[in-house]
Design goal:
53% helix; two-stranded antiparallel sheet; 3 domains; alpha/beta; six-stranded mixed beta sheet; single chain
Length: 355
Amino acid sequence: MVRNKNNLLLFCFAGWVARTCFRCPPQGRGRLVDSAGLIWSVHKACRGMTAIVPQSPLWRFLRRWVARPLFVYVVYRSVVLPLLRRIWARIRFGRWTRPSTWLHCAPKNREEFFAKVPRAASYRPTPWLIGGTLQTASAELPQKFRAGEDVPYGERTSVKIPTRSKPKGASCCPDIIPDGTVSIDWAETSPSVEDAEAVFLVVPGLTGSSLSPYVRRCVSTLARASPRYRVGGYSPRGSNGNELTNPFMYSGGYTEDLRYAINHLELPRVTKLFIVAYSLGSNVTAKMLAEDGPDSPVTAAVVCACPVDMLPLSNYMSYDPWGKVWDRVLVHGCNRLISQSPVLKQCVSRCCRCL
Protein backbone atom coordinates (compact mmCIF):
# COMPACT_ATOMS: atom_id res chain seq x y z
CA MET A 1 0.00 0.00 0.00
CA VAL A 2 2.81 2.40 0.82
CA ARG A 3 4.44 1.60 -2.50
CA ASN A 4 1.25 2.39 -4.39
CA LYS A 5 0.88 5.71 -2.59
CA ASN A 6 4.42 6.69 -3.50
CA ASN A 7 3.83 5.76 -7.12
CA LEU A 8 0.64 7.76 -7.17
CA LEU A 9 2.51 10.78 -5.87
CA LEU A 10 5.12 10.37 -8.58
CA PHE A 11 2.42 10.15 -11.21
CA CYS A 12 0.82 13.32 -9.88
CA PHE A 13 4.22 15.00 -10.09
CA ALA A 14 4.54 13.91 -13.73
CA GLY A 15 1.09 15.34 -14.43
CA TRP A 16 2.07 18.63 -12.81
CA VAL A 17 5.19 18.74 -15.00
CA ALA A 18 3.18 18.17 -18.16
CA ARG A 19 0.59 20.74 -17.13
CA THR A 20 3.27 23.30 -16.33
CA CYS A 21 4.93 22.67 -19.68
CA PHE A 22 1.82 23.83 -21.53
CA ARG A 23 1.22 26.82 -19.25
CA CYS A 24 4.75 28.32 -19.21
CA PRO A 25 5.92 30.72 -21.95
CA PRO A 26 7.63 29.24 -25.04
CA GLN A 27 11.08 30.29 -23.89
CA GLY A 28 10.54 28.35 -20.65
CA ARG A 29 9.59 25.05 -22.28
CA GLY A 30 13.08 24.31 -23.47
CA ARG A 31 14.50 24.55 -19.98
CA LEU A 32 11.79 22.28 -18.58
CA VAL A 33 13.58 19.09 -19.55
CA ASP A 34 17.19 19.98 -18.90
CA SER A 35 17.88 17.22 -16.39
CA ALA A 36 17.87 13.44 -16.30
CA GLY A 37 16.09 13.60 -12.97
CA LEU A 38 12.85 14.42 -14.76
CA ILE A 39 13.25 11.35 -16.99
CA TRP A 40 13.62 9.12 -13.94
CA SER A 41 10.57 10.64 -12.21
CA VAL A 42 8.32 10.10 -15.23
CA HIS A 43 9.69 6.58 -15.71
CA LYS A 44 9.00 5.64 -12.09
CA ALA A 45 5.54 7.18 -12.28
CA CYS A 46 4.65 5.20 -15.38
CA ARG A 47 5.87 1.93 -13.86
CA GLY A 48 4.11 2.62 -10.59
CA MET A 49 0.72 3.21 -12.19
CA THR A 50 0.68 -0.35 -13.57
CA ALA A 51 0.40 -1.58 -9.98
CA ILE A 52 -2.60 0.69 -9.33
CA VAL A 53 -4.69 0.42 -12.50
CA PRO A 54 -3.06 -2.25 -14.68
CA GLN A 55 -6.02 -2.76 -17.06
CA SER A 56 -7.48 0.74 -17.14
CA PRO A 57 -8.16 2.16 -20.64
CA LEU A 58 -7.26 5.58 -19.30
CA TRP A 59 -3.88 4.27 -18.20
CA ARG A 60 -3.19 2.74 -21.63
CA PHE A 61 -4.11 6.03 -23.27
CA LEU A 62 -1.84 8.05 -20.95
CA ARG A 63 1.05 5.62 -21.38
CA ARG A 64 0.83 5.66 -25.17
CA TRP A 65 -0.06 9.28 -25.95
CA VAL A 66 1.31 11.19 -22.94
CA ALA A 67 4.08 9.34 -21.10
CA ARG A 68 5.93 7.97 -24.12
CA PRO A 69 5.92 11.22 -26.15
CA LEU A 70 7.00 13.15 -23.07
CA PHE A 71 9.79 10.64 -22.44
CA VAL A 72 11.01 10.91 -26.04
CA TYR A 73 10.89 14.70 -25.85
CA VAL A 74 12.91 14.71 -22.63
CA VAL A 75 15.58 12.45 -24.13
CA TYR A 76 15.70 14.55 -27.30
CA ARG A 77 16.08 17.87 -25.46
CA SER A 78 18.55 16.69 -22.80
CA VAL A 79 20.70 14.21 -24.78
CA VAL A 80 20.18 14.15 -28.55
CA LEU A 81 19.94 17.88 -29.24
CA PRO A 82 23.05 18.86 -27.19
CA LEU A 83 24.97 16.03 -28.89
CA LEU A 84 23.94 17.28 -32.35
CA ARG A 85 24.98 20.82 -31.40
CA ARG A 86 28.42 19.61 -30.32
CA ILE A 87 28.88 17.60 -33.52
CA TRP A 88 27.98 20.73 -35.51
CA ALA A 89 30.44 22.77 -33.44
CA ARG A 90 33.13 20.19 -34.20
CA ILE A 91 32.44 20.45 -37.93
CA ARG A 92 32.02 24.23 -38.02
CA PHE A 93 34.66 25.41 -35.50
CA GLY A 94 36.97 22.41 -35.15
CA ARG A 95 36.11 21.90 -31.46
CA TRP A 96 33.37 20.09 -29.54
CA THR A 97 31.87 23.26 -28.03
CA ARG A 98 30.81 26.39 -29.83
CA PRO A 99 33.24 29.17 -28.83
CA SER A 100 30.86 31.75 -27.41
CA THR A 101 33.81 34.07 -26.71
CA TRP A 102 34.54 34.23 -30.41
CA LEU A 103 30.95 34.93 -31.36
CA HIS A 104 30.11 37.65 -28.83
CA CYS A 105 33.29 39.74 -28.93
CA ALA A 106 34.35 42.33 -31.47
CA PRO A 107 37.52 41.25 -33.32
CA LYS A 108 39.65 43.88 -31.58
CA ASN A 109 38.40 42.92 -28.12
CA ARG A 110 38.76 39.23 -28.93
CA GLU A 111 42.41 39.58 -29.94
CA GLU A 112 43.15 41.67 -26.86
CA PHE A 113 41.43 39.16 -24.59
CA PHE A 114 43.26 36.14 -26.01
CA ALA A 115 46.56 38.02 -25.84
CA LYS A 116 46.06 38.52 -22.10
CA VAL A 117 44.51 35.07 -21.47
CA PRO A 118 45.97 32.64 -24.03
CA ARG A 119 44.51 29.57 -22.32
CA ALA A 120 40.96 30.82 -22.93
CA ALA A 121 41.27 29.89 -26.60
CA SER A 122 41.70 26.22 -25.71
CA TYR A 123 39.04 26.13 -22.97
CA ARG A 124 36.81 23.07 -23.03
CA PRO A 125 33.81 22.71 -20.68
CA THR A 126 33.12 19.30 -19.18
CA PRO A 127 31.38 17.35 -21.97
CA TRP A 128 28.92 15.40 -19.80
CA LEU A 129 27.69 18.42 -17.82
CA ILE A 130 25.08 19.67 -20.26
CA GLY A 131 23.27 22.81 -19.14
CA GLY A 132 23.51 25.01 -16.09
CA THR A 133 21.41 22.66 -13.93
CA LEU A 134 23.86 19.75 -14.14
CA GLN A 135 26.84 22.09 -13.79
CA THR A 136 25.40 23.62 -10.62
CA ALA A 137 24.47 20.25 -9.15
CA SER A 138 27.90 18.77 -9.84
CA ALA A 139 29.59 21.66 -8.01
CA GLU A 140 27.64 20.74 -4.87
CA LEU A 141 28.72 17.08 -4.87
CA PRO A 142 30.38 15.82 -1.67
CA GLN A 143 34.14 15.50 -1.67
CA LYS A 144 34.10 11.71 -2.06
CA PHE A 145 32.58 12.09 -5.54
CA ARG A 146 35.17 14.63 -6.68
CA ALA A 147 38.73 14.30 -7.91
CA GLY A 148 41.44 15.41 -5.53
CA GLU A 149 41.39 16.08 -1.82
CA ASP A 150 40.03 19.27 -0.29
CA VAL A 151 42.77 21.43 1.18
CA PRO A 152 41.71 22.15 4.79
CA TYR A 153 41.48 25.67 6.15
CA GLY A 154 44.04 26.93 8.60
CA GLU A 155 44.24 30.59 9.59
CA ARG A 156 41.09 32.70 9.81
CA THR A 157 40.86 36.48 9.41
CA SER A 158 37.79 37.96 11.11
CA VAL A 159 37.02 41.49 10.00
CA LYS A 160 34.99 43.61 12.42
CA ILE A 161 33.05 46.23 10.47
CA PRO A 162 32.27 49.27 12.64
CA THR A 163 29.12 51.37 12.48
CA ARG A 164 29.76 54.15 10.00
CA SER A 165 28.08 56.59 7.67
CA LYS A 166 27.29 55.86 4.06
CA PRO A 167 30.34 56.56 1.85
CA LYS A 168 29.98 59.28 -0.72
CA GLY A 169 28.62 57.97 -4.00
CA ALA A 170 27.65 54.57 -2.60
CA SER A 171 24.45 52.95 -3.88
CA CYS A 172 22.26 50.19 -2.44
CA CYS A 173 23.57 51.22 0.95
CA PRO A 174 21.81 52.61 4.06
CA ASP A 175 22.71 56.05 5.40
CA ILE A 176 24.10 54.39 8.53
CA ILE A 177 25.86 51.06 7.99
CA PRO A 178 25.36 48.85 11.08
CA ASP A 179 28.30 47.01 12.57
CA GLY A 180 28.95 43.40 11.65
CA THR A 181 31.51 40.68 11.07
CA VAL A 182 32.81 39.05 7.90
CA SER A 183 35.64 36.53 7.67
CA ILE A 184 38.19 34.97 5.33
CA ASP A 185 39.35 31.38 5.84
CA TRP A 186 42.80 30.77 4.35
CA ALA A 187 43.93 27.43 2.97
CA GLU A 188 46.27 25.56 5.28
CA THR A 189 49.05 25.53 2.68
CA SER A 190 48.88 29.30 2.11
CA PRO A 191 52.07 31.29 2.78
CA SER A 192 52.13 34.57 4.65
CA VAL A 193 51.14 37.80 2.92
CA GLU A 194 54.77 38.88 2.65
CA ASP A 195 55.87 35.61 1.00
CA ALA A 196 52.85 35.18 -1.27
CA GLU A 197 53.28 35.60 -5.00
CA ALA A 198 49.55 36.31 -5.37
CA VAL A 199 46.44 36.39 -3.21
CA PHE A 200 43.20 34.73 -4.33
CA LEU A 201 39.83 35.43 -2.73
CA VAL A 202 36.81 33.20 -3.51
CA VAL A 203 33.45 34.93 -2.94
CA PRO A 204 30.34 32.69 -2.57
CA GLY A 205 26.81 33.28 -3.76
CA LEU A 206 23.57 33.78 -1.88
CA THR A 207 23.48 31.76 1.41
CA GLY A 208 27.01 30.49 0.65
CA SER A 209 30.20 30.73 2.69
CA SER A 210 33.76 29.44 2.67
CA LEU A 211 32.34 26.03 3.66
CA SER A 212 30.20 25.68 0.53
CA PRO A 213 31.34 22.73 -1.63
CA TYR A 214 31.93 24.82 -4.75
CA VAL A 215 34.00 27.32 -2.76
CA ARG A 216 36.06 24.54 -1.14
CA ARG A 217 36.60 23.03 -4.56
CA CYS A 218 37.88 26.30 -6.04
CA VAL A 219 40.06 27.07 -3.02
CA SER A 220 41.61 23.60 -3.11
CA THR A 221 42.33 23.81 -6.85
CA LEU A 222 44.01 27.19 -6.52
CA ALA A 223 45.98 26.14 -3.42
CA ARG A 224 47.32 23.04 -5.20
CA ALA A 225 48.29 25.10 -8.26
CA SER A 226 51.23 26.75 -6.50
CA PRO A 227 52.59 26.74 -2.93
CA ARG A 228 53.15 30.48 -3.25
CA TYR A 229 49.46 31.29 -3.71
CA ARG A 230 47.62 32.58 -0.64
CA VAL A 231 44.04 31.41 -1.17
CA GLY A 232 41.05 32.22 1.01
CA GLY A 233 37.29 31.76 1.06
CA TYR A 234 35.10 34.72 1.97
CA SER A 235 32.14 34.40 4.35
CA PRO A 236 29.64 37.29 4.58
CA ARG A 237 27.61 38.41 7.57
CA GLY A 238 25.64 35.73 9.38
CA SER A 239 27.33 32.73 7.74
CA ASN A 240 30.01 30.27 8.86
CA GLY A 241 29.96 31.40 12.48
CA ASN A 242 29.96 35.16 11.83
CA GLU A 243 27.74 36.45 14.60
CA LEU A 244 24.91 38.84 13.80
CA THR A 245 24.27 41.63 16.29
CA ASN A 246 21.58 43.25 14.13
CA PRO A 247 19.28 42.14 11.29
CA PHE A 248 21.39 43.87 8.60
CA MET A 249 23.01 41.41 6.15
CA TYR A 250 23.79 41.96 2.45
CA SER A 251 22.30 42.19 -1.03
CA GLY A 252 23.32 41.97 -4.67
CA GLY A 253 24.09 45.70 -4.81
CA TYR A 254 25.72 46.21 -1.42
CA THR A 255 29.51 46.28 -1.87
CA GLU A 256 30.82 47.97 1.28
CA ASP A 257 31.50 44.80 3.30
CA LEU A 258 33.59 43.15 0.57
CA ARG A 259 35.49 46.38 -0.08
CA TYR A 260 36.17 46.85 3.63
CA ALA A 261 37.45 43.28 3.97
CA ILE A 262 39.82 43.70 1.01
CA ASN A 263 41.20 46.97 2.37
CA HIS A 264 41.61 45.34 5.77
CA LEU A 265 44.11 42.86 4.31
CA GLU A 266 46.59 45.71 3.73
CA LEU A 267 48.37 43.87 0.94
CA PRO A 268 51.77 45.12 -0.25
CA ARG A 269 51.67 47.04 -3.51
CA VAL A 270 53.67 44.37 -5.30
CA THR A 271 51.21 41.61 -4.32
CA LYS A 272 48.56 40.85 -6.90
CA LEU A 273 44.98 40.25 -5.75
CA PHE A 274 42.60 38.06 -7.75
CA ILE A 275 38.93 37.39 -7.02
CA VAL A 276 36.82 34.43 -8.13
CA ALA A 277 33.14 35.10 -7.41
CA TYR A 278 29.97 33.09 -7.93
CA SER A 279 26.32 34.00 -8.49
CA LEU A 280 25.23 36.84 -6.18
CA GLY A 281 28.82 37.27 -5.04
CA SER A 282 29.88 37.79 -8.66
CA ASN A 283 27.33 40.59 -8.99
CA VAL A 284 28.71 42.25 -5.85
CA THR A 285 32.28 41.86 -7.15
CA ALA A 286 31.52 43.26 -10.60
CA LYS A 287 29.67 46.24 -9.13
CA MET A 288 32.50 46.96 -6.69
CA LEU A 289 35.10 46.90 -9.47
CA ALA A 290 32.99 49.24 -11.60
CA GLU A 291 32.58 51.65 -8.68
CA ASP A 292 36.28 51.69 -7.81
CA GLY A 293 37.58 51.85 -11.37
CA PRO A 294 41.38 52.17 -11.73
CA ASP A 295 41.72 52.81 -7.98
CA SER A 296 40.68 49.25 -7.14
CA PRO A 297 43.39 47.09 -5.47
CA VAL A 298 42.07 44.06 -7.39
CA THR A 299 44.32 43.01 -10.25
CA ALA A 300 41.71 40.87 -12.02
CA ALA A 301 38.48 39.04 -11.26
CA VAL A 302 36.49 36.14 -12.66
CA VAL A 303 32.72 36.44 -12.21
CA CYS A 304 30.84 33.16 -12.67
CA ALA A 305 27.08 32.99 -13.35
CA CYS A 306 26.72 36.71 -12.73
CA PRO A 307 23.07 37.89 -12.51
CA VAL A 308 23.70 41.21 -14.23
CA ASP A 309 20.01 42.16 -14.40
CA MET A 310 18.04 41.07 -11.34
CA LEU A 311 14.56 41.67 -12.79
CA PRO A 312 14.75 39.11 -15.65
CA LEU A 313 16.32 36.66 -13.21
CA SER A 314 13.40 37.11 -10.82
CA ASN A 315 10.93 36.65 -13.68
CA TYR A 316 12.73 33.49 -14.78
CA MET A 317 12.41 32.02 -11.30
CA SER A 318 8.71 32.91 -11.28
CA TYR A 319 7.57 31.09 -14.43
CA ASP A 320 10.25 28.59 -15.46
CA PRO A 321 9.90 25.12 -13.84
CA TRP A 322 13.63 24.75 -13.17
CA GLY A 323 13.72 28.35 -12.01
CA LYS A 324 11.04 27.49 -9.46
CA VAL A 325 13.15 24.56 -8.27
CA TRP A 326 16.23 26.73 -7.73
CA ASP A 327 14.05 29.38 -6.13
CA ARG A 328 12.96 26.83 -3.53
CA VAL A 329 16.59 25.83 -2.96
CA LEU A 330 17.61 29.45 -2.37
CA VAL A 331 14.64 30.09 -0.08
CA HIS A 332 15.54 26.97 1.90
CA GLY A 333 19.07 28.33 2.30
CA CYS A 334 17.73 31.68 3.49
CA ASN A 335 15.47 29.95 6.00
CA ARG A 336 18.45 27.99 7.27
CA LEU A 337 20.36 31.24 7.87
CA ILE A 338 17.36 32.67 9.71
CA SER A 339 17.05 29.57 11.90
CA GLN A 340 20.72 29.84 12.89
CA SER A 341 20.50 33.48 13.98
CA PRO A 342 18.40 34.52 17.03
CA VAL A 343 18.44 38.13 15.79
CA LEU A 344 16.93 37.22 12.43
CA LYS A 345 14.38 34.87 14.01
CA GLN A 346 13.22 37.65 16.31
CA CYS A 347 13.03 40.11 13.42
CA VAL A 348 10.99 37.71 11.27
CA SER A 349 8.59 36.96 14.14
CA ARG A 350 7.99 40.70 14.65
CA CYS A 351 7.31 41.19 10.94
CA CYS A 352 4.84 38.29 10.97
CA ARG A 353 2.98 39.78 13.93
CA CYS A 354 2.73 43.12 12.14
CA LEU A 355 1.19 41.42 9.10
